[in-house]
Structures are given as structure tokens and as C-alpha cells.
Known about the structure:
Elements: E1 3-10, H1 15-35, E2 43-48, E3 51-56, E4 66-74, H2 79-89, E5 98-102, E6 106-115, H3 120-133, E7 159-167, E8 174-175, E9 179-180, E10 183-184, E11 188-190, E12 199-201, H4 205-214, H5 221-238, E13 242-243, H6 247-254, E14 261-266, H7 276-286, E15 290-294, E16 297-306, H8 315-346, H9 349-354, E17 359-361, E18 365-366, H10 367-385, H11 389-398, H12 406-410, H13 417-425, H14 430-438, H15 453-472, H16 486-499, H17 512-528, H18 533-539, H19 547-561, H20 564-586, H21 602-623, H22 627-635, H23 638-647, H24 655-673, H25 685-692
Antiparallel strand pairs: 1-3, 1-7, 2-3, 4-6, 5-6, 7-8, 9-10, 11-12, 13-15, 14-16, 15-16, 17-18
Helix pairs in contact: 1-3, 5-6, 7-8, 10-11, 10-15, 11-14, 11-15, 13-14, 14-15, 15-16, 16-17, 19-22, 20-23, 20-24, 21-22, 21-23, 21-24
Amino acid sequence: MPDLLLELFSEEIPARMQRKAALDLKNLITETLVDSRITYGIAKEYWTPRRLTLYIRNLANYSSYFKTEQRGPRTNSPEQVISGFLRRAGLESIDQAEIRREPQKGDFYVAIVERPIRATEEMIAEIIPNIIQTFPWSKSMRWGPQSANLNSLRWVRPLQSILCTLSYELEKPIVIEFEVGGIISSNITYGHRFHASHPIKIENFDDYVVSLEKTRVILDAERRKEIIRDNAQNIAFTRNLELFQDNNLLEEVSNLVEWPVTLISEFNKEYLHLPSEVIRLTIKDHQKCFLLRKGKKLSNHFLLVSNIEARDGGIEIARGNAKVINARLSDAKFFWEMDLKTIESEGFKPWLENLNKVTFHAALGSQAERVNRIVVLAAEIASMIGAAIGKARRAAEICKADLSSAMVSEFPELQGIMGRHYAEFLGEDTDIILACQEHHSPLGISDSVPINPVSVTVAIADKLDMLISFWSINQKPTGSKDPYALRRAAFGIIRLILVNQLRLPLAQKVNSDLLSFFHKRLRSYLKDSGARYDLIDAVITPMSDNLLAITRRVDSLGSFLETEDGKNLLVGIKRAINILAAEKKKGTRIFKETIPDFFQASEETILVDAISHAETEIEEAVQIEDYATAISALSKLRLPVDNFFEKVMVNVDDEEIRANRLALMRRIYDATKIIADFSKISVPKEILIHEEG
């Protein structure tokens, strides 16, 4: 049983794409092998900045024989339906299909799909070129003379060679020969670009790994990360320094190098007086270097990872990085001092006035106009959630001021962070200072959620203004397009509300269409949190604007329906709803209210009394958002409902008794609807089977 080795060698692949691309390559090939009835043992993907590699062990020598029948459409189906069937079945014409007949449904087509035994080598030579040609890069390019042809090969960066071999335990490896975009597969790879870029002939996977390492290429990304981490910690230790752990940076840097060499350098100590975020941004985000600290203080030393072993031990590389960082920090120092000089003499006034000249959106006015809207919203929201109105107004007024600062003009990523520093410099209230930084948050699922009331108020106002404003000019997200990140804004408001347990009546601020947009985001949030989709639909109504209440109802209902009482009551309620719906459809007479004079069984009286008591308890509990009590009141209906359906038949011959019992079914539905629309809740299959049994 042979092993497959595939390497796609190219110019540098962007670091953020490598891991996913390697996994995509593995999945596409292994899934196709399975579809082709070729078995295999273990498949493992690898990647470096210049190569995607796949190693598959113990491939079967041949595909297995396969034959199956694929049912198609009726013979009188539209032409496009028949064409789709032919494509799926792999038939060239309908004449290749058989016609079968069913007494009730008539004639229909059947395709006999037969796959003969084929050599694995032959099939891989077909599979891999097709996958390369259609590889799902998010961004790709054409290159060279062939790029004039729109059908030419596209790759993330120019593809330079393809290594593809099958190696056998006691036999010489063979090259699986094919051609893609003018590149012919071989058993040749290349080492490190600078240390050993000459061709290397490969025998098998073990030989491949060893040969690459001899030529300064470490294939395994996890091992590269380990080397970087260990060397960084050792270097830091020898200098009595501590490494800032940053797994995201470690992942990125390990994908920028094939032969990691960790070096230490330093920037001028005078720049340590700058805000630490400026230093972090420059060193970590811009230069992809690691920060160091001594005790709790940031050190002026930093670590960098080179892709080569320099003859001078990396002295010039370290010096070059320090030169770039010093230059960038020198600019930052100039902008910082200029900004402080401006606000020391005039406060935020000139920056706020300058926002009149900064366009937010052509149809929505300037940033100053946007700030005015946020101020109004912040005051209203503060009164709703119990935050200090004066502080909320002031924080909203100055939270965008740093957009006019020299520092943010040069370092846009620091907007909000610099606002905090400037507000602190001017001696603003502590809550206002914090809100200046936190009003952007949360930006994503992993971003922390503000909990300070003033920060929460301004953060909601900022995002709500975005949504209301763009809805007012009909600039809503469509499909995958969301240029103004409105989905993120809605999601941020949802997280702010739920984390801080806020009762914010959104319907007072947004129209029904925007409220529906919030509902869609909340559905996704709750579903990702593990809630059942049918329960979410059962609780949300078109005018539900208390998102916290929706979440609590879903949680309480979900917990109740996991109990035996909940499961059994659900069956009874669904039974009542189904009977009612069926009779409404028939036009059967139903009384508007239950009439005690028409009760014939004690179970009817007991049930209607239980419903009356439950309705009162549920309504009172829901009013104060005590959903545990509401659910407890609902659970008391379980026994009366069970007894009713066990002893009483709804659809009796007597029209008035039937109409009265149908009214009782409606009472059950209406009472439970105070909590949720049970008609939208699915009964678990195991309960249905038990009931039918």
C-alpha cells in the first residue's frame, strides 16, 4: 500500500492563509478519494511560507468496484429538471437512464451509476489537477504570459513546482505525472530561498522532511512555533526579562519563516514615556516582533524572528529592525507632544470643531453631526439603564475628538485608546475617560464587553446611531456585503445588553424592520450559545424588543422542556394546538369562550380552573420577568392536560359540546402563548415514538 506525497511550491503565501489552505487541500483530496472508493490510512497536512504539503499513508492500490441506482424525476418533468438529473448522475443523455413505473406515481427515470476498478495512480493523476485548478483561495492571481488567458491557472501567488509521488515500502517511488498551468509534476523540491535554493530529488516522506531540514526548512509549523517560543523565553531569561505571551503573533510569525532564528534588539529608552499602546502597536502589529517586560514595566528590548542565519549572528538584522522601530516611535513622540500641546492650551474644542470638516457619510453629514446624535441617544439610554446622564453626555461629546488628533491620523488603530489618554491628561472624570476608550467595544466575539455604566451607555449609543442612520438611507447589509459593519454593530449591542443584563426597550428607538434585524442577530447568538432554534422562534415575536427577556425565556423554556413534566406537557399542548388547527381548517364551529354549562366531565372543569389559575400566575411572573415562576406555573397544567386527553374526546358528535371543548383547546394555547408560541416547538422524535407506541 503506497504513500502519497504532494507538495505545491510557490512564492510566499500570506501567513493568515497558510493553515486554512493546507487543511482545504487535505479535505478536498481525501473527500475525493473517499468518493472514488479509494481507502487510505492517515492524512496529514503541512505548510510553510512557500509550500503546501500533504502526506497520505497506506493508500489502496485500486479503487473498489461500485454500483448503485440513482432515482431521478418523472418522465414528464420539465427539461431543466431532467438536465439537472443527468448532471448529477454523470449521464450524457437521457437514453442512458432506465424507465421504471410505480402504480401511483407513474413513470420515472433511474440512473445506474457504475464505477469500475481503477488504479489509484491513474485516479490521483486526474483528481489533483482538478483540485489545483479549482482551489478555493479567497484571493488569487494569474501570472506570466499565460495570464492573458482568463482560463489560465489562478493561485494565491505564482505556483512554481509540483511534487507528487507514490512511495512503496520495497519498491522505488514513482512520480504521478500530470500537468497544471504549464507546470509538470515531478519528484523535485527546493530548499530555503537564501540558504539552499537548488533542486532536491525526493525519495519518500521521511527523505523529504530530512532533506528540507538540511537545506534550512522546517516543515512542521507547530515545531517552528515551539522553536520560536523556546528560544524567545531563553533569550529573555538570560537578560532577566519576561516575554509577553502572544499566541496570535506566534502563529503569524511562525508562518513568515521556514528557518526561524530568534534575535534580541532594543529601541531608545526615551520612547518608553510614550503611551504603552503606541509602543505595542509599533513593535507587535507593524514589525511583528515580541514585547518584553521587566517586572510590570515594558522593556525597551524586543525580540524578532529572522528567516535566515546571518554570518554576523544577526547583528545587522537586529539593528535594522531597531532603526525602523526608532523612526516610527520618533514620529509618534512628535505627534504625541504636539497633541498634548494643543489640548493643554485649548482642550478638546479645536478637535471637536474640526469634526465639522470630517465627513461621516455623504448622506448622513459630518462626524460632528454624528457626535450630536450620539449625545442625544446617550442621554436617553442613560436614563433607561440608570447611568449618570451628565457623564454619559460628556463622554459621548468627546469620544470622537481624537479623530482630529495628529496621533490618530498617523496611527488610526489607536482611535479611542488615544482618546482615553487625552481625556486623562485633561483631568476628565474616571468614568468618562474609560468610556472614551470603550465606546467602540465589543468589536467581535472575542472582544471584552464594557461593564462600566457610562461606557455601556456610549457604546450602545454609538452602535445604535450607526444602525438607525444607515437604515434611514436604506443602506442595509445585503447577502455577504456589509461595508459599514452593521451586523457587527447589532451584535455588539446584543452582547452589551445581555452581559450587563439591561432592559432596553429598542422599539422606542428603531422601526420594525431594524428590530427584525436585531432578532436575526439574536437568533444567531443564541443558536451559537446552544439554544434550540425552535425555542428561539417560539419566544420571539415581531415586536419583541426586550432582548434580555427573550434570552431568559429561551433559557427557562429549554430547561423545562428537558424535564419529564416539560416533555409530557409539550405533547399535550401540541395535541391541543393540532386539534384546534385541523378543526379551524374544516370550518368547525368553536365557541369564543368556554361555557361551564356544556361541561360533561369533571376533567373539563378541573382543566379550565387550572388554566385560569395558571394564566394569572404566568402573567404576573412575566410582568416582573420572573420566568422560573412563570414556567413553574405552566408546569402545573401537565396533570390536568394529561387527564383531560386520557378521559375526554374533543370531537364528539354533539356540535355544542365539541365547540365548547375546542374553545378549551384554544384556552390551553392562549395560556401557554403568554410564555411562548408552542405551535413552533418541535416534539422530540423519541417522545413521538413513545406516544405512537
